[in-house]
UniProtKB/TrEMBL annotation:
PANTHER family given in the database record: OXIDOREDUCTASE, SHORT CHAIN DEHYDROGENASE/REDUCTASE FAMILY (AFU_ORTHOLOGUE AFUA_5G14000), OXIDOREDUCTASE, SHORT CHAIN DEHYDROGENASE_REDUCTASE FAMILY (AFU_ORTHOLOGUE AFUA_5G14000)
Protein name stated in the entry: NADP-dependent 3-hydroxy acid dehydrogenase YdfG
Top-level taxon: Bacteria
Family annotation (Pfam families): adh_short
């Protein structure tokens, strides 16, 4: 039976590493992002991946895109919500439009994806819905008002999903990613930082793979991932 993982939010860090981790285990991976050109590039580079353009901030067509995945690949058993957007400003410096846009990507998109995919998850004996969050979900700092409020809302939604879906054998987990992902652009932006400063995307993908395969009697809801040098 074909095993299908859907990843919402594809980029050169966590998204790419997650696609490689799951396809490396023989899974078919549906990649969702608004950047169609990037999706097509990954589709040509990573065997077992499939491009499905979708803007997480606009949840109206979620049902159609996830139904297409079902028809072409099979019912999804793991959904990873990795889409994110951040505006890092003080509350009185950010516009209301910026508050709304960050919330739409981090929270509304998750709600839309969950509503569309949970019927597919229910078809499996065990399934998983994993959300990549941030330490901002746990603390609102003066200069992160739009981002922190959206991530806190996302975390609360994840808790609601976990409590509702756990009895149906659907494991919902929230991953707090605390730090800077090791990528060429982050290295270029922070040339003086040691290797230990950065988070390795492959290691993050390994942790999410583990969450997706936990035994039900000892599920993790929240997992913190950070390098030892990170301030927390």
């Amino acid at each position: 039976m074909t095993q299908v993982c859907a990843i919402v939010g594809m980029g050169p860090g966590n998204g790419r590493a997650l696609a490689q981790r799951f396809t490396g285990e023989g899974w078919q991976v549906a990649m969702l992002s608004r950047n169609e050109a990037r999706l097509k590039q990954y589709e040509s580079e990573i065997r077992g991946t499939h491009a499905y353009p979708w803007d997480a901030a606009d949840g109206e067509d979620a049902g159609a895109v996830f139904e297409r995945i079902r028809e072409e690949l099979g019912a999804i058993s793991v959904l990873i919500y990795n889409a994110g957007a951040g505006v890092f400003k003080r509350f009185d410096e950010a516009t209301l439009a910026e508050f709304e846009q960050v919330w739409r990507v981090n929270c509304l998109g998750l709600a839309a994806a969950a509503q569309a995919v949970v019927p597919q998850l229910r078809e499996h004996e065990q399934a998983s819905l994993i959300i990549t969050g941030a330490s901002a979900a746990l603390r609102g700092r003066a200069g992160t008002a739009p981002f922190a409020s959206a991530k806190a809302a996302q975390r609360s939604l994840a808790q609601s999903l976990a409590r509702q879906l756990g009895p149906e054998n659907i494991h919902v987990a929230h991953v707090v990613i605390d730090g800077v992902i090791d990528m060429p652009r982050t290295r270029e932006a922070m040339p003086g930082k040691d290797d230990d400063f950065f988070l390795d995307a492959g290691a993050i993908a390994d942790s999410i793979w583990f969450l997706a395969h936990q035994q039900r009697s000892a599920w993790t809801f929240e997992l913190d991932l950070r390098p030892y040098a990170e301030q927390w």
